[in-house]
Design brief:
By secondary structure, the protein is mainly α. The chain has five helices and two strands.
Length: 175
């Protein structure tokens, strides 16, 4: 289980790197007239993602979950693919990528990279990783709970983001 703990720690370190990028990008966006929407659901999103990492380890250690090679290695591949998709999104959006919903008026909608294939590819990466990371080491309760709670969060987040992108002038009013 030591290697699984190291994997979860690596994902946590990646999250910290994301937050650094998001902070830098938020400063740029706000300095260029950006407005933020969805402030109300953001703390729940942070709690859910932090809880995922903690629950992966807690369930695996507390319930003494076994590593099942055919499932575990498949899920490692899904986690790696989700990371690749997430960083493709970050690269494609550049300064506009953020963990918050901040829209800079006047900038066109991004339609390149993974966005030419899927409207919200970053959320596909989040859903895949949130289900796969726990299943790497048999934490199926965590995988199910994250998937259900993430779906509820996305039912709020995606309409918020779509609304902000459709009408950036009103994004701040919907915060």
């Amino acid at each position: 289980m030591i290697w699984y703990t190291a994997l979860v720690a690596a994902v946590a370190a990646e999250r910290v790197a994301e937050l650094g990028i998001a902070l830098r990008n938020a400063r740029w966006s706000l300095a260029h007239g950006g407005t933020e929407a969805g402030r109300g659901h953001y703390p729940a999103m942070v709690a859910l993602h932090t809880g995922l990492l903690a629950a992966c380890l807690a369930e695996t250690w507390q319930a003494d979950r076994a590593f099942v090679p055919w499932l575990g290695w498949t899920m490692v591949a899904v986690v790696a693919g989700a990371q690749g998709l997430r960083w493709w999104c970050v690269r494609t959006l550049g300064r506009r990528w953020n963990t918050r919903v901040i829209v800079v008026p006047g900038l066109p909608l991004v339609t390149g990279g993974p966005y030419r294939l899927i409207r919200h590819p970053n959320y596909v990466a989040v859903a895949a990783e949130g289900a796969a990371l726990p299943l790497v080491h048999g934490a199926w309760v965590t995988a199910v709970l994250f998937t259900v709670l993430n779906a509820a969060l996305m039912a709020v987040r995606i309409p918020c983001e779509d609304g902000a992108l459709a009408d950036p002038a009103q994004a701040g009013a919907r915060a």
